[in-house]
Amino acid sequence: MSFYEDQILPRAIHLLLGNAAMRPLRTRAMDGMSGEVMELGFGSGANVGLYPEAVTKVLAVEPSMVARSMATDSIAASPIPVELVGLDGQSVPLEDNSVDNVLTTWTLCTIPNLDAALSEVRRILRPGGAMYYLEHGLSDDPRIAKRQNRFNGLQKRVAGGCHLNRRIDSILTDAGFHLEHPARFQIAGPKTMSAMYSGVARLA
């Protein structure tokens, strides 16, 4: 891993996605979440302090040591226990049927083998469990989608493997999830990065 990917990128992501403007989006995406939760792509802990009261514990998966270090103070102050349990969403060190729900916020764009990660999500969810997601991805606007496809290679190089053009809803349904209350919306920012997907992906 390069110095940029190891040291600079986690801090840049924290500034872009961990700021106050994103908190309402994060809070809304977690509405209804409860029980023991695995957070896939915990990052710098931007969701800490926003989890619903019904959440009893968070098991965090995060590969970046810098992001983990940045989250230390938030974890210590969290009213809900947070335990760092793994580095790789493609191979999670948790038992089968061991968590009530899974949370991802701006994570599915980056995981190299998304099929493997979603298979792990299905494996560790208890019956009736769901994945609460907030992600960016392919735009419905053909003109923007064309630019996303054109610049996707560059984006992956400068943003740690982040894809501009993943169709999150189709990926989830193809992986065997049933989508509840799926939402598509735009946020402020570059149009290639501002097409949002949010909802609840429940085990079918």
Structure description:
Strand 6 and strand 7 form a beta hairpin. The protein has a single domain, classed as Rossmann fold. The protein is α/β, with parallel strands linked by helices and 204 residues long. The chain has a seven-stranded mixed beta sheet with strand order 3-2-1-4-5-7-6. It contains seven helices and seven strands.
Question: What keywords describe this structure?
Answer:
alpha/beta; 204 residues; Rossmann fold; single chain; 7 strands
Topology overview:
Elements: H1 3-17, H2 23-29, E1 35-40, E2 55-61, H3 65-70, H4 72-77, E3 82-86, E4 99-105, H5 114-124, E5 125-136, H6 142-158, H7 168-174, E6 177-186, E7 195-203
Parallel strand pairs: 1-2, 1-4, 2-3, 4-5
Antiparallel strand pairs: 5-7, 6-7
CA-based shape: globular
Number of domains: 1
Q: Tell me which oligomeric state these chains represent.
A: single chain
What integer is the average pLDDT?
96
Characterize this entry briefly.
The protein has 204 residues and is of the alpha/beta class. It is 34% helix and 27% strand.
